[in-house]
Write a structure and sequence with these properties.
Number of helices: 13
Shape: elongated
Largest sheet: 7 strands, mixed
Helix content: 25-40%
Number of strands: 17
Radius of gyration: 25 Å
Structural class: alpha+beta
């Protein structure tokens, strides 16, 4: 496999721009160097930069008579599908504690955990040439050429199974008016000890029509064959793809942060990181739960009901006995939560605001804090 930094094949015109846009955007380079197709490999391990690059190619590159394979890996992250509910799909509290970011991609499909032991592949084509079976055959053929003893095959659900039991690859796709892309994962040496807990939601009280993930047993390829590694597998996939579609075999390295080569890429990556996209695009859902709160020798039951739209609390009803917390104070909290983001940090801010503006004795202040901590725990 020949690796060529993308910048080296650009015209050397950066020092003499003088306000004139050079023909050195990635789309122009692809026109010159990838008439029928190309294999690209990301130099970034940032999930938002790589997802933004996918969007950029989909929007800016003519795919009617060419196909592109994009290979990429990320530092630890959880990625949900476009139509999913993150509170139902993953353990957000654990992710916050471990510093694992959450990303929402623009394609459908289920939730995946990714880290540097996971390989991502994006197959770009015209819509008429879109063929997930053919793409997955590239992957399984490459693996079998590397290690003939490996038992890997693609399923009708467009997953790849190892030994007929363990899922090592999942699929998602985005179909545009004229172009399409199909992307899939491949577990090589991912941290399965972290994968399992971060993909287990702690929110049992949510009712939603969001697309649910389908849990499957998983395994790393290195557990089957310790001599495998991500670089070797990526090289094999690139070679198989080039052989399948008659390309020259070279792999072009791309920097998804290069605004000159990818005009508008910074804005696209920034939009993917906003709360409004990651959480606010969640389909409408409701929360209905009960929990107990205790203060000294006093314990009581609380009923919590919420409707959440675009990640914002539309209605809120917190009910508990008046002798534990005055009804007026409970009503004030309900009113304050309406219009608030369904987010524990937002609840903490509101709690502080209530306690600052409403004079309370120490007992009521403590009870209010206890109640709000339990409400935040439902988020």
């Amino acid at each position: 496999m020949i690796l060529r930094p993308c910048a080296r094949v650009y015209a050397n015109t950066r020092d003499c721009l003088r306000g004139i846009r050079p023909l050195n955007t990635l789309s122009a380079v692809i026109e010159q160097n990838g008439k029928t197709g190309l294999v690209l490999q990301s130099m970034s391990t940032d999930i938002f930069e790589n997802l933004a690059f996918e969007d950029w190619v989909h929007q800016h590159v003519d795919l009617q008579d060419r196909r592109i394979l994009f290979l990429w890996r990320n530092a630890a992250a959880v990625v949900i599908g476009r139509h999913q509910n993150p509170w139902q799909e993953c353990n957000l509290q654990l992710m916050r504690e471990r510093g694992v970011p959450l990303a929402r991609r623009r394609s459908g499909g289920g939730t995946v955990y990714q880290d540097l032991g996971n390989i991502n592949m994006t197959f770009f084509t015209s819509k008429r040439k879109y063929d997930r079976h053919k793409n997955l055959n590239v992957v399984t053929s490459a693996l079998k050429k590397l290690r003939p003893a490996l038992d890997v095959h693609a399923t009708d659900r467009f997953d790849i199974l190892l030994n007929r039991d363990f899922k090592i690859s999942g699929t998602a796709a985005k179909l545009g008016r004229a172009d399409a892309y199909h992307h899939c994962t491949l577990l090589c040496a991912a941290d399965l000890a972290l994968l399992s807990p971060v993909l287990k939601s702690t929110c049992r009280s949510i009712r939603s029509n969001a697309t649910p993930s389908v849990p499957s047993p998983v395994r790393n390829l290195v557990d089957e064959d310790p001599t495998l590694d991500c670089d070797t597998i990526m090289e094999a996939i690139a070679s198989q793809y080039s052989a399948e579609f008659g390309l020259n075999g070279a792999v072009m390295l791309v920097d998804p942060t290069d605004e000159l080569c990818l005009p508008g890429i910074h804005k696209m990556a920034s939009e993917l990181q906003t709360w409004e996209w990651v959480f606010g695009r969640t389909p409408k859902f409701s929360v209905s739960t009960c929990f107990e709160v205790s203060y000294e020798a006093s314990t009581t039951k609380v009923t919590l009901n919420m409707d959440v739209k675009n990640g914002i609390i539309e209605t809120c009803s917190i009910e508990l006995p008046q002798d534990w917390l005055p009804t007026a104070l409970c009503r004030e909290l309900n009113a304050l939560l309406v219009g608030c983001k369904f987010c524990p940090s937002e609840v903490a801010v509101l709690t502080s605001a209530v306690l600052r503006t409403t004079p309370l004795n120490s007992e009521l202040e403590t009870k209010m804090n206890i109640l709000c901590q339990h409400v935040a725990a439902a988020m």
